[in-house]
Amino acid sequence: MSGRRSKKQLSWARLAEIIGHSKEWSTAALLGQMTLTEAQARAVGEALDLPDEAVALLQVVPYKGALPGAVPTDPLIYRFYELVNVYGTTLKALIHEEFGDGIMSAIDFSMDLTREPDPKGDRVRIVMSGKFLPYKTY
């Protein structure tokens, strides 16, 4: 996917426009973590000159969260792993204090990634919003 995208000089944002969703969701879909509709897959296929087999694969329900190993080795992805290792218990404590016993949904979820100018070096700003799902008693 990335090779064809680079060859065609199409940004993730442009492909998201073709798909009709956010750049964050669309990028996840094109990297195999979400499912495109037939119309979306065909539109991407036309834009990237993908073979029919690739267009069909974009419509298959993926095995989500499938990284090649338990601990990521890519430096950028590892920083997120490290972030959760350092701040995971803090996030859990603060979410539970604010909302009660439950989890933040990764299904009813949105994310926005932007560049934040800073004189000491631009910063990456990531805003995540997930529905709170309380645990049920039964």
From TrEMBL:
Coiled coil: none annotated. Residues 66-138 form the Cyanate lyase C-terminal domain. It comes from the Bacteria. InterPro entries: Cyanase, Cyanate_lyase_C, Cyanate_lyase_C_sf, CYNS_N, Lambda_DNA-bd_dom_sf. Keywords: Hydrolase, Lyase, Plasmid. Gene3D superfamilies: Cyanate lyase, C-terminal domain (3.30.1160.10), lambda repressor-like DNA-binding domains (1.10.260.40). Its EC number is 4.2.1.104. Signal peptide: none annotated. Belongs to the cyanase family. Catalyzes the reaction of cyanate with bicarbonate to produce ammonia and carbon dioxide. PANTHER family: CYANATE HYDRATASE. This is Cyanate hydratase. It comes from Ralstonia solanacearum (strain Po82). The lineage of its organism: Bacteria, Pseudomonadati, Pseudomonadota, Betaproteobacteria, Burkholderiales.
